[in-house]
Amino acid sequence: MESASVPVPAKNVQPEGSGAGEKGLKSGAIGFLSGVVIGVASTAPGYSLAGALGLVVAVVGIGVQAPVIMIAAFIPMLLVASSYYWMNRADPDCGTTFSWVTRAMGPSWGWIGGWAIIVADVIVMANLAQIAGLYTFLLFGVNNPSTLAVTVLGIIFIMAMTYICVIGIELNAKTQIGLLAAELTALGLFSVVALVRVYANDAPHGSVKPAASWFNPTDIGSTSAFVSGLLLAIFIYWGWDTTVTVNEEMEEPGEAPGRAAIWATIVLVFTYVIVTVAAIAFGGPARLANDQSGDVLGLLANDVFGSSTLGKIVIIAVLSSAAASCQTTILPTARTALSMARAKAIPAKLGEVDTRYLTPAFATWVMGILSVVWYVGLTIVSTNILGDAIAALGLWIAFYYGLTAFACTIYYRRQVFTSAKNFVFLGLAPVLGGLMLLVILVKSCYDLSKPANSASGDSWFGLGPPLVIGISFILLGAILMVIWRVQGHPEFFGRKTEVADPALVAASPAGGATS
Amino acid sequence: MSSRTIVVGYDGTDGSKAALQEALRVAGEIGGDVIAVFAYDRVIIGGEQHDLDAEVHQHGDAMLAEAAAAAQAAGITLTPQYIEESPASALVKIADHHDARFIVVGSYGERPLKGALVGSTPYKLIHLADRPIIVVRIPDTD
Q: Using DSSP, how many helices (H) and how many strands (E) does chain B show?
């Protein structure tokens, strides 16, 4: 009888000589262009603009100054993304926010950081659902659908997207490139036609010609206005951080690191600025500000092209962008839940991987269902969920980005002063980015304590709804964490803070090699 | 002349169990050996990959150990192989490398729409592989 050779548990058995490394198999297949595409698509420019543009213009004191807000909001994101990038390079085997913060600042901070990501995801899904619902109606020519109809469609959208993430579909590179090209072309056409018509005096009443002063930050009415604009605009760059970490593993060995990420950034900033300028010029600040329902881009597109058929191109762009954004939001969040479950920070059930699809299916479904509950609940109690949800979202994003940035410097504190490069990328940039976000967070909380400063103008317990949303979720998180802690779980809560292994930095490009 | 190696896709699901049984049976008949492949196609969009990869790897190793145990019981030599790539191209690559006699996979007998959504591995193999494919349907459970 032939004896069974059982090389148990065989890890990483590789077909010798085929040049097929376990991870290496895929890296060659994904080129520079795909890197840029994933970067831009993760940030979902069409959807982000649809959701936030009107709100930014509406902030009293901003108006036509919206373009400079788009540029300014990018600075803290750039600084924070630098900490993602360099931490990921130095130690690619440790996850992101949850794992980093737990290591650098201890389990409680790490837990809250992971919680912030999950909360942001649940909130943004409601927002995505509403935009997707609205634009689907616009696509079929219904300009003022009822809230009920939009909500029903939104719920269907959330469940469909959750299902797609559960079965782990990833559009192939060519489809993604095609979709993104269509999205950018639509936004580009929209901008060009709008601007040409403004300069030809062919735009509707209320249009204004762009002026250099739109880019002057000192023309913004007040610091409060500036900060609330930033809080909203942070949302439009959200997702860009994943670009930076995903790109890392796609780069061909020997290529300048992050080249794709840099190009993705340039494309994004340009898109945002150009579309913002074109939309304000064509529609006029008053029209953009008055329409806070989130469908301003779709409605403007019909006017710009003077034909609802062409206008539909922009609507389709926003819809495909919302779908892409859904994936890039749900996937990392479910994976964060899985990380937390593996670390015994939350129930193990949330870390379960589906045996067929190999995705964190249970966590994904939980997230989808919570989003539906949140979406329906908020639609019932708030008159303007879109604006308030985005502001609340901004608070959470600022919180966990800031936390991650500080964690980077704390984790690498022994390396910060070892070289000028380390000082800049592991020390200066993260701390500066973190501080900026901290200032935005604190100032926004202060401003939002006055209900009049929220998008809806509603007052909940005498405070603006976004602040109430933000505080409630922090309290809920703290309560849940205490409950979990009281039940024991020393494997997680007993963890000590760590510092980076000096060898990591020394061996990584962050330590010396040029980039 | 191809070898007597049979490559089988094994992820622990019912379809793959049926495929493994068939592979072991054929290997017994022709006096060949089996390579069991657990392929994991990472969705790279979204990042935050590390812990998911680690979890899937653990799961994959456990499944491959299961396959190894089944092979041992059947007295067949089995080499487990964990690979991060889409199942179809992983199977083809490994089969090519060992010049395998057959590739054996399970099938869920999915309706065309769902098959198109999740990407039917048997269907892709037909186009990719230049050696015989054996597709084993799971026994009807309903």
A: 5, 5
Q: Is residue A151 part of a domain?
A: yes
ipTM of the complex: 0.86
Q: Tell me if A4 and B78 make a contact (CB, 8 A cut-off).
A: yes
Residue B81 φ then ψ, to 5°? -145, 120
- Provide, as residue numbers in chain B, all residues whose Cβ is less than 8 Å from the Cβ of A355: 11-13, 59
The values of phi and psi at residue B8, to 5°, are -130, 135
Q: Are the CB atoms for A51 and A294 separated by under 8 Å?
A: yes
* CATH number of the structural domain spanning residue A354: 1.20.1740.10
Q: What is the 3-class SS of A322-340, one letter each residue?
A: HHHHHHHHHHHHHHHHHHH
- Please identify among residues 71-100 of chain A the ones whose CB lies closer than 8 Å to any CB of chain B: 92-96, 99
Half-sphere CA count of A475, side-chain side, radius 13 A: 6
Residues from chain A contacting residue B81 (CB–CB below 8 Å): 10, 13-15
Put simply, the answer to whether A22 touches B82 (Cβ < 8 Å) is yes
pLDDT single digits (tens) A236-269? 888 877 776 666 565 554 454 467 777 888 889 9
> Bridge partners of B35?
B7, B79
Among A130, A500, A165, which residue's Cα sits nearest to residue A331? A165
pLDDT at position A236 is 87
3-state secondary structure of B133: strand
| DSSP code of residue A383 | S
Please check whether residue A189 is in contact with residue A313, taking contact to mean a CB–CB distance below 8 angstroms.
Answer: yes
Q: How far apart are CA B99 and CA B88, in angstroms?
A: 16
CB A24 within 8 A of CB B90: no
Residue A186's H or E segment, with its range, is: helix A173-199
CA nearest to A13 within chain B: B81
Q: What is the number of CB-based contacts under 8 A between chain A and chain B?
A: 167
Above 90 in pLDDT, residue A366? yes
Q: Is residue A10 part of a domain?
A: no
First to last CA, chain B: 42
**Chain A hits for B75, Cβ within 8 Å:** 1-4
Q: E strands along A349-498, which residues?
A: none
pTM of the model: 0.84
Residues A241, A84 contacting (CB under 8 angstroms): yes
Question: Is residue A195 very low, low, confident or very high in pLDDT (cuts 50, 70, 90)?
Answer: very high
The answer to whether position A1 is within a domain reads: no
Domain count along chain A: 1
Distance of alpha carbon B78 from the chain centroid: 13
A417: exposed, middle or buried (C-beta count within 10 Å: 0-12, 13-18, 19+)?
A: exposed
At which residue do the structure tokens 């409060």 appear?
Answer: A224
Q: Is residue A289 part of a domain?
A: yes
Show the CA angle centred on residue B113, arms to residues A153 and B48, nearest 5°: 70
Buried/exposed A217-242: b ≥16 CB within 10 Å, e otherwise: eeebeeebbbbbbbbbbbbbbbbbbb
Contact between B50 and A99 using a beta-carbon 8 Å cutoff: yes
Domains and CATH numbers, chain B: 5-137 (3.40.50.620)
B13 secondary structure, DSSP code: S
Is residue A297 scored above 60 in pLDDT?
A: yes
Torsion angles phi and psi, residue A360, rounded to 5: -75, 75
Could you tell me the two tokens for A128? 């995505």
Domain around A478: 35-504
